[in-house]
Design brief:
Mean pLDDT: 80
Helix content: 55-70%
Strand order of the largest sheet: 4-1-5
Low-confidence stretches: none
Number of helices: 19
CATH topology of the largest domain: Preprotein translocase SecY subunit
Structural class: mainly alpha
CATH superfamily of the largest domain: SecY subunit domain
Distance between the termini: 35 Å
CATH architecture of the largest domain: Orthogonal Bundle
Shape: globular
Number of domains: 2
Radius of gyration: 25 Å
Strand content: 5-15%
């Protein structure tokens, strides 16, 4: 693969796609710096300084720091992701959506259209909600975040944030169609990676001042390499279930009879479980910033990152959502029915209900391994900060997203290079029957 990347300059189409992707990601990062009107930036920054461990911090991570600056892209691409997840969940209960998922390309286009409509509605609701919430926020010095509250501010803010999200959605779709990689994932990736230079600079400053021991820093670098390699291995890992297709004789032709396999990923749910778990467990701390009630403050304090209560509930929620989301997105009964219709079967397992039960049994076991892996990666930052006094955040949902998106993008680049090589091999070859 490295040799293929070295020859990247020899593939003009791929070079244009990568350049187009980088250009649109640069447009996104420029938009992050454009502030929305009517906000006191210093008062908002001081509010976010005490809002760590809340939903605001989580949303700010996915928006690439846009929420903290309250730019036109403050909502980021999260409304689009939320709309996609809601449609996936509704497909289980609504037969029309389930039928659309099975209709191929036309069904996917219709679901994409519904997702866009849902994104507009969600972003407008969230924009108005954030505008109303900002009117009650003040800095520690008592300075209000919004200088001129009222319905004029709420409508302008709601429409601005909605427009920013819709523009980001359009950017993501353009990257997917005309660039390289998944556009929505790359936008999230760019927002997370944009914080890395400042984190590296701060770390070197701490080493110069003696706050970080060089031996500890060397250990952390080695550990980071091992953790990233472990994530790459686990994201590629899957269980192969052998599939045998029966032979069918039609006239003088013999169809089927080949051996193949059904790959089941260890981490079928991806990064959705930690996102859901973080949103739920951070909700009390978020409410505590607005409601000054003693018992709510105590609950929020108990659920702060680093405490054993927080980590225990976090792991339980991750395991639950791993199983829940896997059950929503992967249906063993449909897989077994498709195998039976195409003459396929698992050796030693009767087709039909027995096959679906076997697939469900295997999926249940490997999902436990995947849930344990995701839990370890997501708990790692708290262990490093509380036990080793590491002054920076490493691991968690952000690391899973960065490594996963980087692997997918490099895989697509490799696929383009392989396709180009095949075209080069076949160029000038006259196939039989081709005129």
């Amino acid at each position: 693969m490295i040799k293929g990347i070295e020859g990247l300059g020899q593939v003009p189409e791929l070079r244009r796609r990568i350049g187009f992707t980088l250009l649109l990601l640069a447009v996104y990062r420029v938009g992050v710096q454009i502030p929305a009107p009517g906000i006191d930036a210093q008062a908002l920054a001081s509010f976010f300084a005490r809002a760590s461990g809340t939903l605001f911090g989580l949303f700010d991570m996915f928006s690439g720091g846009a929420l903290k600056k309250f730019s036109i892209f403050a909502l980021g691409i999260m409304p689009y992701i939320s709309a996609s997840i809601i449609l996936q969940l509704l497909a289980v209960a609504i037969p029309h959506l389930e039928a659309l998922q099975k209709e191929g390309e036309e069904g996917r286009k219709k679901i994409s259209q519904y997702t866009r409509y849902g994104t507009v509605v969600l972003s407008l609701i969230q924009g108005l909600g954030i505008a109303i919430g900002l009117e009650s926020m003040t800095s520690p010095a008592g300075i209000p975040v919004v200088s001129s509250p009222g319905w004029a501010f709420r409508l302008i803010t709601g429409l601005t944030l909605m427009s920013g999200t819709v523009f980001l959605m359009w950017l993501g779709e353009q990257i997917t169609e005309r660039g390289i990689g998944n556009g929505i994932s790359l936008i999230i990736f760019a927002g997370i990676v944009a914080r890395m230079p400042s984190a590296v600079i701060d770390t070197f400053r701490l080493m110069q001042t003696g706050d970080i021991n060089p031996a500890l820093m060397l250990f952390l670098i080695l550990m980071m390499v091992v953790v990233v390699a472990f994530i790459c291995f686990m994201e590629r890992a899957h269980r192969r279930i052998p599939i045998q297709y029966a032979r069918r004789v039609v006239g003088r032709r013999v169809y089927g009879g080949q051996n193949t396999h059904l790959p089941l990923k260890l981490n079928t749910a991806g990064v959705i479980p930690p996102i859901f778990a973080s949103s739920i467990i951070m909700f009390p701390a978020t409410i505590a910033n607005f409601i000054q009630v003693p018992w709510m403050q105590r609950v929020a304090q108990a659920l702060m990152p680093g405490s054993w209560i927080y980590e225990s509930i976090y792991v339980i929620l991750i395991v639950f959502f791993c199983y829940f989301y896997t059950a929503i997105t992967f249906n063993p009964v449909d897989i077994a029915d498709n195998l039976k219709k195409n003459g396929g079967y698992i050796p030693g397992i009767r087709p039909g209900r027995r096959t679906s039960e076997y697939i469900d049994k295997v999926l249940t076991r490997i999902t436990l391994i995947g849930a344990a892996y995701v839990s370890v990666i997501c708990v790692l930052p708290s262990i490093l900060i509380t036990q080793l006094n590491v002054p920076f955040y490493f691991g968690g949902t952000a690391l899973l997203i960065v490594v996963g998106v980087a692997m997918d993008t490099m895989g697509q680049i490799e696929s383009h290079l392989i396709t180009r090589n095949y075209e080069g091999i076949m160029r000038g070859v006259r196939l039989k029957g081709r005129r």
